[in-house]
Write a structure and sequence with these properties.
- The protein is 27% helix and 24% strand.
- Strands 3, 10, 16, 17, 18, 19, 20, 21, 22, 23 and 24 form an 11-stranded antiparallel β-sheet that branches.
- It is α+β, with helices and mostly antiparallel strands.
- The longest helix has 24 residues.
- Helix 9 runs antiparallel to helix 10 and helix 11 runs antiparallel to helix 12.
- The chain is globular, with a radius of gyration of 28 Å.
Length: 802
């Protein structure tokens, strides 16, 4: 099989190098995006990210496709056999498509014939796996009689559940379009069009067709994009069909945003990635058709997110239960899910809403997400990844080199290199400058060629220079986005507000002369007849600011966060010789900005005076003056595991004094199921009630119905007569339940485990103190033994010993 794979990868000569054709005339967005192919990024900040993507992330992703059998699945699909065992995940094909998409974007920034040839070789085996009618789904095709367990017995049978056939189509189309735009070749686009045509033929409400909607959305936005590239209306109609039928098929429930028809939805609910992809597709349909019901619905959903469900980092998705949005104002920090894919989806949605409405507020949200909750998902070197992006940690979160379910790493692969396509937009005589980074671009403005050069040290500096390097001499409007953070607006709602009383300002000069303009839709508009060599100098005041959350956000009451420009900051253990969770901020903090070009690929630190709250040996509250150092949130977790916090206490009601050591916290912990999360059992953090999952926990998943254990080994022999356990139970979504039974043992002088004598009742109440008293024993170790439920695992937040 490997020989067949490598032989296939070498057959590049069969690939045609058809040149890009003229884009068919078709209706587009109210505002025209400027494609990535028209922009060359030369920026220091983003150049580092793009280079890491080129040198590490995308080569890593391609190697994982080889190593994990992603390519081999296509080879098997081209030569089906009943002997093949179909393994992996039903959407593994998309990792190949997404990585090709990212690599294609990179070819624009870094032309690379070797990479282009490699992509072509992969597309040979992808094309060979496609069935004659266009269907391409290796999880079924490699062994049609015994397909993947999620696939069902026939096409589309489980597409609303787990098969991901439409999801695979979506990522295939997205990747194929990027490849076509970057290279002019149609070898991938032809594959995608054949599969899209297959879906359009077989899915619909006409006689002989199957009525079905995507179980996992993304095909909607991809098909809308395919319509724009080909001009063929059937793809947009198919995207709208998928959305129109949602809520009317067997797929129901909030988890998949199918609880009601999409045009009746007004709240962001369910799985945050699925939601963001669907909302992006709704924005596409709204923008491309002008359908008022879609415009009204997506506007209401966006408003719900930015007023009630958006993290200050721009992340979305509050809970790991269903990887979902929480209730309104439910924004916990340590347990925040904020999946990297959801942040990418949030960018997609806001980008499309800008193309629909042309208002800067959408880019304000996009920029906040981009610089914080999105790039935090990948390490600076491009080789480590976060699935969730929490706003607080005690060290239980570490970036991973890859995941078996690789949607986040492969999504990062495709997003970071696509960034050049988000900087500019054009409408008639209007040129929008939406993002600030050094670049050059060639635009078409009212049919005439215009070239711009942007130079800046943003996000560290608020100074931006834009030079007109080519123009026809005709007048056009330069529309410069004035970021919300300059206008004293954290987000376009009252979910977060600045509380430091500062008022920042900005100025714009043309050829050294100050110009004035009223803001229109958040944009500073300069209308003039431009000539080659004209210079625009933009200055944004950039100072550290403190932010308060709406009082309805329980997790952030009595706390502040800190930001400067578009960057949200955090306190991390490695910069501070004290517990950052116990920091108490001054009521009127002042900050020193310290440039650290040698640290974390070059950052600005913020330093301020603060206090640490703690207890003395008698249990009395103490305060200690400290110098607190903050770093950009995106850069945390690069220097080992430890505490981190975005929201810092500045009121007593939210303070968290450093707890004195306990027998448990000083003990060595071991368990039957070793995991980094074992540190949670003696971290001295307990849930507020049975619904609180915001503090760390440990569990034995995926073991079920087994007997498991945890032990404490004391520093010295100690007298013990009581233990308290806080059980973790994530019903109804998760697989953990309170245990069937549990027992405490101690180690006797001979080193044998003995049950404690005369214990109270061993209770199993969820999320509350389950205390057991027993006859005192002097021992060097104790053991908590748990009998798990037959069909579930068990877990716990904390195990106290006295």
């Amino acid at each position: 099989m490997k020989n067949l794979l490598f032989t296939s990868l070498l057959i590049v000569g069969t690939i045609g190098a058809a040149q890009a054709q003229e884009k068919p005339k078709s209706h587009g967005y109210p505002i025209n995006p400027v494609p990535f192919t028209s922009v060359k990024v030369t920026d220091a900040f983003w150049g580092q990210r793009l280079n890491a993507s080129r040198e590490v992330t995308i080569p890593l992703a391609f190697s994982k496709c080889e190593e994990t059998g992603r390519y081999e699945n296509f080879v098997k699909a081209a030569h089906p056999s009943e002997d093949y065992k179909v393994e992996g995940l039903a959407f593994d094909d998309t990792d190949v498509y997404k990585t090709i998409e990212g690599a294609s974007y990179l070819l624009q920034t870094y032309p690379d014939k070797k990479l282009e040839k490699y992509i072509d070789s992969v597309l040979v085996i992808v094309a060979a796996a496609q069935e004659p009618d266009g269907y391409l789904y290796t999880s079924r095709t490699m062994n049609p009689k015994h397909p993947h367990e999620w696939a069902g017995s026939k096409r589309w049978e489980k597409v609303e559940d787990l098969s991901h056939e439409f999801y695979n189509l979506g990522h295939m189309v997205e990747g194929a379009i990027a490849h076509y735009q970057a290279t002019g070749k149609k070898n991938f686009l032809d594959i995608a069009i054949k599969y899209a045509d297959c879906v359009c033929r077989e899915i619909g409400d006409k006689p002989g067709q199957t009525v079905a909607v995507p179980g996992h959305q993304i095909a909607e936005m991809a098909l809308a994009k395919l319509y724009l590239v080909t001009g063929d209306r059937k793809y947009l109609d198919q995207a709208k069909f998928f959305l129109d039928k949602r809520g009317y098929t067997t797929r129901t429930g909030e988890y998949s945003q199918a609880h009601k028809p999409v045009v009746e939805q007004d709240e962001a609910v369910g799985h945050a990635v699925r939601a963001a992809y669907m909302y992006s597709g709704m924005a596409d349909v709204a923008a491309l058709t002008g359908d008022k019901s879609y415009i009204d619905a997506i506007d209401k959903i966006w408003d719900n997110i930015v007023t009630k469900k958006l993290y200050v980092t721009g992340g979305i998705g509050a809970t790991s239960h269903g990887e979902a949005f929480g209730k309104n104002y439910e924004l916990p920090n340590m347990s925040a899910y904020c999946e990297t894919c959801a942040a990418i989806g949030n960018v997609y949605m806001n980008y499309r809403l800008f193309l629909l409405h042309g208002e800067s507020k959408y880019y304000d949200v996009l920029e906040r997400t981009l610089y914080n909750g999105l790039i935090s998902g990948v390490s600076l070197d491009g080789g480590g990844f976060f699935y969730p992006n929490p706003l607080e940690s005690i060290g239980q979160h570490q970036r991973q080199p890859w995941f078996g379910c690789a949607c986040c790493p492969s999504n990062i692969c495709r997003f970071i290199p696509s960034l050049p396509g988000y900087i500019y937009a054009v409408k008639d005589n209007d040129v929008y400058i939406n993002l600030f980074m050094s670049n050059t671009t060639d635009l078409k403005v009212a049919g005439k060629n215009v070239s711009l050069k942007q130079t800046t040290n943003y996000p560290w500096s608020g100074d931006v220079k834009v030079e007109v390097t080519k123009t026809s001499g005709r007048a056009f409007n330069l529309k410069i986005r004035i970021p919300g953070w300059v206008k004293n607006e954290v987000v376009p709602s009252n979910l977060y507000t600045y509380n430091d009383g500062k008022r920042l300002s900005y100025s714009v000069k043309v050829n050294g002369q100050l110009v004035n303009s009223e803001l229109k839709g958040g944009y500073f508009v300069i209308d003039r007849q431009w000539k080659k060599g004209d210079n625009v100098e933009i200055h944004f005041d950039m100072e550290p600011r403190t932010v308060k959350a709406n009082s309805k956000v329980e997790a952030d009451r009595g706390r502040i966060s800190v930001e400067r420009g578009p960057i949200v900051y955090c306190a991390e253990w490695c910069d501070n010789s004290f517990d950052v969770q116990s920091v108490f901020m001054n009521q009127k903090p002042t900050f020193e900005v310290v440039s650290k070009p040698e640290l974390l690929s070059g950052i600005n630190q913020l330093k301020t005076d603060a206090q640490i709250l703690g207890y003395d040996e008698k249990g009395r509250l103490t305060t200690t003056d400290v110098k607190l150092t903050l770093i950009p949130y995106y850069a945390w977790a690069h220097r080992g595991s430890g505490a981190m916090a975005v929201w810092l206490s500045n009121e007593l009601r939210s303070s968290r004094p450093t707890m004195p050591p306990t027998l448990a916290s000083e003990s060595k912990v071991n368990a039957s199921h070793p995991a980094k999360s074992i540190s949670a059992v003696n971290d001295r953090l307990v849930p507020k009630d049975e619904t609180d999952t915001s503090v760390p926990y440990y569990h034995w998943w995926p073991k079920q119905g087994t007997t498991e254990w945890i032990t404490y080994e004391f520093p010295v022999a100690s007298s013990v007569s009581s233990v308290t356990v806080y059980w973790y139970d994530d019903a109804p979504w998760g697989g953990c339940r309170v245990p069937k039974a549990w027992t405490i043992y101690y180690k006797d002088a001979a080193g044998n485990w003995q049950p404690v004598t005369h214990p109270d009742k061993y209770t199993v109440e969820k999320g509350t103190a389950n205390q057991v008293n027993f006859d005192a024993v002097t021992t060097k170790a104790v053991k908590l033994e748990v009998q798990q439920p037959e069909k579930h695992s068990s877990g716990l937040f904390e195990w106290e010993v006295k």
